[in-house]
Amino acid sequence: MDPSSGSGDEDGTVSKKVSNLLPIYGNERTMNLNPLILTNIQSSHYFKVNLYELKTYHEVVDEIYYKVSHLEPWEKGSRRTSGQTGMCGGVRGVGAGGIVSTAYCLLYKLFTLKLTKKQLNGLITHCDSPYIRALGFMYIRYVLPPNLLLEWYEDYLEDDEEMDVKAGGGQVMTMGQILRQWLVKLEWFSTLFPRIPVPMQQKIQRFLEQKFPPQAVQVAQERAREDRRFDNRVEREPRPGPVRDDLRRDFLRDDRDRRVDTRRDRNRGVERRDPKYGDRSRSPNRNKYSHHGRDRSRERGDRYRRERY
């Protein structure tokens, strides 16, 4: 056996392993997460007990498929920032915790596995759930160097797969919209992504402006909004319901006004035919004989009293 051939195979294996490794940007221990979020992840029962039992990449992917339903760092209604101002509430999330979301617990679990390029590619091209793909892209945004972001994101900036990113629902975005937002904005709900150096940020901005001109982006958004509005109209066909009381009152009021107008027109017609219609008075003989009845009734009363007494 030729020792040189054996050493060549070993060198090739080592080079493949090196090429499959992913560089880590920033803090290699915290994954560049917000300290409050990281503390809540590490102290959560879900991460310490449930996720501790998952040892392989495929087990974590299956857990994402079954457990993740949004991309916020906190579960709905678990974080209170009502009485805080400045950096103690709002974006940075300093000073007010909550229940950290399943998505961020699993994201940090992926970081502890030290994903390879092959595994990361498997995440962002996964066909079972958009949340598996989204966590792969979020891993790229938190962990990889900024100069590699466009290289990983470029082919998916127009991806139209939709998902609801808000805890509790109500904010549907396409994968392309999410990636474009992550490239140009640091804020993501109540946390921040790692800052991108200014020269790299300018390069990304120029690339996006060339690929997606502002006018074209606005037209595309309007078209997508109209399509969603049309789909909602088709799905929810209007059904005839009971007549509202205010509409019934308006109809009766209109009908009453119409009768009054008709009566007024009729009187006007009589006045035109008889000029003395408005000057007519009561008949002079109307009460001429009315006292006769009173007199007869008085006589009957007197006769009754005489006969009785």
UniProtKB/TrEMBL annotation:
Pfam families: PRP38. Keywords: mRNA processing, mRNA splicing, Nucleus, Spliceosome. GO terms for cellular component: spliceosomal complex. It comes from Ceutorhynchus assimilis. Residues 221-248, 260-309 are annotated as: Disordered. The keyword Protein biosynthesis does not apply. Belongs to the PRP38 family. One of its GO terms (biological process) is mRNA splicing, via spliceosome. Residues 222-248, 260-282, 296-309 have a biased composition (Basic and acidic residues). The keyword rRNA processing does not apply. Signal peptide: none annotated. Required for pre-mRNA splicing. InterPro entries: PRP38. The lineage of its organism: Eukaryota, Metazoa, Ecdysozoa, Arthropoda, Hexapoda. This is Pre-mRNA-splicing factor 38. Residues 283-295 have a biased composition (Basic residues). It is found in: Nucleus.
